[in-house]
Amino acid sequence: MPRRGYIVKPITLKSVNDFFEIMFLLEPEAAKLSSRERTDLVRKDFDGLVMKMKDALKSEDYESYTALNDQFHSLFLPRSFRYGMKGDQDDKGL
Predict the structure, then answer these.
(1) pLDDT for 41-91, tens place per residue?
(2) pTM surpassing 0.85?
(3) CA nearest 54: which of 37, 36, 72, 77?
(4) FRET label pair with 50: which of 32, 61, 73, 82, CA 20 to 30 Å apart?
(5) Is the residue at 86 inside a domain?
(6) Side-chain half-sphere CA neighbours of 8 within 13 A
(7) How far is CA 45 from the centre of its chain?
(8) Which residues of 32-58 are buried (b: 16+ CB within 10 A; e: fewer)?
(9) Which structural domain, as residue segments, surrounds residue 28?
(10) CA 24 distance to own-chain centroid
């Protein structure tokens, strides 16, 4: 059989909707797992970011919202990995 390489499946509206449906199911659980590791300082960071994200949405500043959303996820996702969310992650003091 000749070498054909990889074929990338096209992105469809259904595949995007499926992705977000899965993400909306997994992210709250990841946040719960990370809450086991929250210190008062991290909790203040979470609260501050949530307030800033709400403000950005109210003012329709989607660029700021996206940057804040990335910061928010960078706080809780690494803490979730400790509990098996991403395979065998080493404990790196997160």
Answers:
(1) 677 888 888 899 999 999 999 999 999 988 888 877 766 655 554 444 444
(2) no
(3) 72
(4) 82
(5) no
(6) 3
(7) 15
(8) ebbeeebeeeeeebbeebeebbeebee
(9) 13-81
(10) 10
Residue 37's nearest CA partner among 77, 70, 64 is: 77
| Tokens of residue 79, six digits | 């803490």
Would you list the DSSP string of 32-77?
A: HHHHTT--HHHHHHHHHHHHHHHHHHHTT-HHHHHHHHHHHHHHHH
pLDDT digits (tens, 9 = 90+) for 15-28: 999 998 998 888 87
Q: Is pLDDT above 70 for 37?
A: no
Return the structure tokens found at 13. Answer: 């509206």
Residue 87 falls inside a structural domain = no
How far from the centroid of its chain's Cα atoms is residue 63's Cα?
Answer: 17
Q: Which two tokens stand for residue 80?
A: 């979730």
